Task: structure prediction
Amino acid sequence: MSTLRAGFIGLGKMGRPMALNMLKAGFPLTVANRSQGVVADVASHGATAAKTPAEVAANADLIALCLPMPSHVEEVVLGPNGVIEGIRPGSIVIDFSTIGPSTCRHVAERLAEKGAHYLDAPVSGGTTGAAAGTLTVMVGGDDASYATALPLLQSVGRKIVHAGPVGAGAVVKLMNQLLVAINLAGAAEAMVLGVKAGVDATLLYETIASATGNSFQLARNFPDLILKGNFDPMFSVNLLHKDVTLGVEVGREQRVRLLLSALVQQIFEEARNAGHGEEDIAAVIRPLEALSGTFVRAH
Result:
């Protein structure tokens, strides 16, 4: 069992299995979440339930966060009853959330005033990777904090990358998300066009999947989701739109023109406006299907 005590705040689709893997690795764990049902569930596996983020921080050396939006991170860490009210000098906040580098640096600066440290550590691998403990973790922060936190990071991830100072992990994750969105939007256009032009959807998918147009996004989104008309959310349009928006903001800050990224931001906005925001990212194809009168489904 680890001598370092851990905490986890944000027990959603990603956070819950990550917290359970920390328990399996032997970390004493205190947890909190806005919805109390999942807190009781994780507590039944051996965690200690807390009522507030401040209580988690007061009882942990390593405080992990997994939250949807930058505003949620700022509220949980810096708001009333937040982490900052309970944290002790030397403790480390490990933020698995996907947020912008400017938010990471702001939160890190505020925690430093308390003598605490911050690592941005966004993850990739989805709910399957979270359950299996095989996530890719992209970390930004100082060397000493990274070394201290590494055993905890290894309990949830297979590939751990120390990308640089605070904010660097967020940048790597956001660049990944820009490519996710661009690749998916391109696959959606090609599949709709091919079916509109008279090719069977399954044949088209299987042929491209064995050719040079294949991609992770083609394989993720078509055989089990789009071709079956299944848009139940594993990772929602709203969340990827948030990530793309944050990535475009980094481009603006760095004065790098992002034509494809800006365009795909609008494509995901189109899906949100059409009522598909809470559906899986595969639903980004649905406005184009409706516009063309062509539906990419297996028969």
